[in-house]
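In response to the reviewer comment on reproducibility (Comment 2.3), we provide here a single inverse folding case reported in full, input and output, so that an independent group could reproduce the run without further information from us. The C-alpha cells appear first.
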C-alpha cells in the first residue's frame, strides 16, 4: 500500500525531530523514519552520554582536591558497569521522551531505514512499503569515518562502541586530535586508564585558536595523557595481553583498547539521493542553500548530513527554520556565524568567533587581550593547573570578534559571551560591565592591557 504525506523526514535525530514536530504543528501530515533509535546521535551516542561520562570522570579530581579543603575521603573505587547501566537508563528515558513528543505532535514514526526510490517515493526497508511524499527532508546525520583500511582495523572501535564497552580498559590509545578524541581521552584518563593520543597533525584541536591548542595540550599532559603528534597508527595486532599498536615512526604501544576519532562522514550513501538528482559534495555532504533546499526543489537537508557546522543546536535551528520556511510561510535562512562551541575535556575549552590567526587574515587591525591565572579552587587543592582567557578585538571598530577560554566551566561561560559577540559588543562594552567577584569570568571584563596588536601592512 502506498501512503501519502506532506512531509517525509528521513532520520529522527536532533534536526529531524524538531523539523517534524514544528511542521506537523503547522498542519502538515508528517511521517518520520528512524533506522536505529529515536533521538539520533546527540541523545543516543553523542553529546548526552558523552557529558554523563565526562561528569563521571571528573569525580577523580574532586576526590583528590577535597583533601586540601579538609575532607578525608576514603580510597574511592569506581565501577564501570554501574556507570554504563545508569547512563543507558537515562538514554532510554530520553528516547522515550522524544518518541512521546513526536506522538503528541501527531507525527507518524516508522522504525525503519528509508531510501528514496524516486524524487517523491520513499521505501521503508523494514516492511517494503512505499510512501509518496510532497516534500522530503534528509536528516540522516553522520557516522564515524575510520580512515584507511589498515591491518587489524577490526580491533579498533569508534565513539559508538566506546559507550558500550563491557569493561573499562586499563590502557587506551585514541587516534585523532579533534574534540571527540580529546573528550574521550579525558574521560578514560579521569576514570583511571593510561591514555595515549596519536594525531597526524602538528598539534591537537585543529581549527581552534593556536594558544588554546598549546594550552590545552600542556594541561592534558599535566594530567598524565601522552600526546604523540605527527604520527599515525599503521597497524593493530591482537596479542595475548592486549592490542599491539604500531605507529608510523615504528614505535610499538601495548594497550587494551584502540579508538579512532578521525572524523565523521555524512550519511548519504545508498539512500537513493543521486538518482533522485540531489547534488552531493566532496565528502558526501548534501549541498544546500541558506534555506536548506537541495538541488531538487522539494527535497531539503539539515544537520550533519549537510556538513555545515556539525553541532546539535545548529541541526535543531536548521530543522526549525526549514519548518518555518516550508510550512509556516516564514522564509527563515540560518546564519552560521559566531556559533559557540565547547570541548568537554578536562579542563574545558569554550570558543566563539574568530581565532587570532583568522582575525589577522580578515581584519586590518587586531588587538589581543589575554589573561592566564591559577583558578582559585586549585589553590587550596594544591593542583597545578592554569586557566587561559583571550579576547580577539577588531582594532578599528573595537568589536569583540572572538573569545577563547580554557578552564573550568568554559562551556557555560562561552554560551553567555556568545550573546555579547552576536550583539556586536565592543571591548568598551566589556570594560563598562561591572565585574562579579570572585569568579573566573570576571577576568573577561577586567583585561586592560593589550597582549598583542597586529596591523596588516597596506598592499603595495
Ligand atoms: C561522540 C559525540 C559527541 C558529540 N558531542 C556534541 C556536543 O557536545 N555538542 C554538540 O552540539 N554536538 C555534539 N555532537 C554532534 C551532534 O551529535 C550532531 O551534530 C547532531 O546529532 C546532528 O544532528 P542530526 O539531526 O543532523 O543527525 P543525527 O542526530 O545523527 O540523527 C540522524 C539520524 O538518522 C538516522 N538515519 C540515518 N540514515 C537513515 C535512513 N536511511 N533511514 C532512517 N534513519 C536513518 C540515524 O540512525 C540517526 O538517528 C557529538 C557527536 C558525537 C559523535
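Designed residues, in position order:
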Amino acid at each position: 500500500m502506498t501512503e501519502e504525506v506532506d512531509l517525509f523526514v528521513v532520520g529522527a535525530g536532533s534536526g529531524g525531530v524538531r523539523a517534524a514536530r514544528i511542521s506537523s504543528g503547522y498542519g502538515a501530515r508528517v511521517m518520520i523514519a528512524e533506522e536505529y533509535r529515536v533521538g539520533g546521535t546527540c541523545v543516543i551516542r553523542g553529546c548526552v552520554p558523552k557529558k554523563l561520562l565526562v561528569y563521571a570522570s571528573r569525580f577523580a579530581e574532586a576526590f583528590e582536591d577535597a583533601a586540601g579543603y579538609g575532607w578525608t575521603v576514603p580510597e574511592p573505587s569506581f565501577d564501570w558497569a554501574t556507570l554504563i547501566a545508569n547512563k543507558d537508563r537515562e538514554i532510554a528515558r530520553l528516547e522515550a521522551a522524544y518518541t512521546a513528543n513526536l506522538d503528541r505532535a501527531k507525527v507518524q514514526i516508522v522504525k525503519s531505514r528509508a531510501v528514496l526510490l524516486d524524487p517523491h517515493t520513499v521505501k521503508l526497508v523494514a516492511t517494503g512499503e512505499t510512501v509518496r511524499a510532497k516534500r522530503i527532508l534528509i536528516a540522516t546525520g553522520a557516522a564515524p569515518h575510520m580512515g584507511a583500511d589498515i591491518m587489524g582495523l577490526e580491533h579498533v572501535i569508534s565513539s559508538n562502541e566506546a559507550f558500550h564497552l563491557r569493561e573499562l580498559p586499563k590502557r587506551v590509545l585514541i587516534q585523532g586530535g579533534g574534540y571527540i578524541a580529546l573528550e574521550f581521552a579525558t574521560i578514560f584518563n579521569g576514570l583511571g586508564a593510561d591514555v595515549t593520543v596519536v594525531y597526524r597533525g602538528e598539534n591537537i584541536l585543529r581549527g581552534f585558536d593556536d594558544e588554546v591548542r598549546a594550552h590545552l595540550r600542556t594541561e592534558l599532559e599535566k594530567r598524565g595523557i601522552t600526546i604523540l603528534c605527527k604520527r599515525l597508527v599503521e597497524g593493530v595486532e591482537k596479542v595475548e595481553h592486549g592490542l599491539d599498536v604500531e605507529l608510523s615512526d615504528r614505535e610499538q604501544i601495548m594497550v587494551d583498547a584502540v579508538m579512532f576519532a578521525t572524523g565523521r562522514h555524512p550519511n548519504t550513501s545508498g539512500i537513493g539521493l543521486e538518482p533522485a538528482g540531489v547534488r552531493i559534495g566532496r565528502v558526501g555532504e548534501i549541498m544546500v542553500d541558506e534555506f536548506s533546499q537541495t538541488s531538487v526543489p522539494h527535497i531539503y537537508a539539515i544537520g550533519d548530513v549537510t556538513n555545515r557546522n556539525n553541532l546539535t543546536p545548529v541541526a535543531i535551528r536548521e530543522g526549525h527554520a526549514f519548518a518555518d520556511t516550508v510550512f509556516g510561510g516564514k522564509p527563515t535562512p540560518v546564519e552560521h556565524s559566531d556559533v559557540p562551541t565547547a570541548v568537554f575535556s578536562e579542563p574545558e575549552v569554550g570558543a566563539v568567533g574568530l581565532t587570532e590567526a583568522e582575525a589577522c587574515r580578515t581584519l586590518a587591525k587586531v588587538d589581543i587581550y589575554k589573561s592566564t591565572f591559577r583558578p582559585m579552587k586549585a589553590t587550596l587543592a594544591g593542583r597545578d593547573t592554569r586557566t587561559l582567557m583571550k579576547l580577539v578585538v577588531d582594532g578599528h571598530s573595537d568589536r569583540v570578534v572572538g573569545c577563547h577560554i580554557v578552564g573550568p566551566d568554559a562551556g557555560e561561560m562561552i554560551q553567555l559571551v556568545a550573546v555579547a559577540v552576536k550583539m556586536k559588543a565592543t571591548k568598551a562594552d566589556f570594560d563598562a560591565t561591572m565585574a562579579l567577584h570572585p569568579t573566573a569570568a570576571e577576568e573577561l571584563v577586567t583585561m586592560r592591557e593589550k597582549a598583542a596588536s597586529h596591523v596588516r601592512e597596506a598592499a603595495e
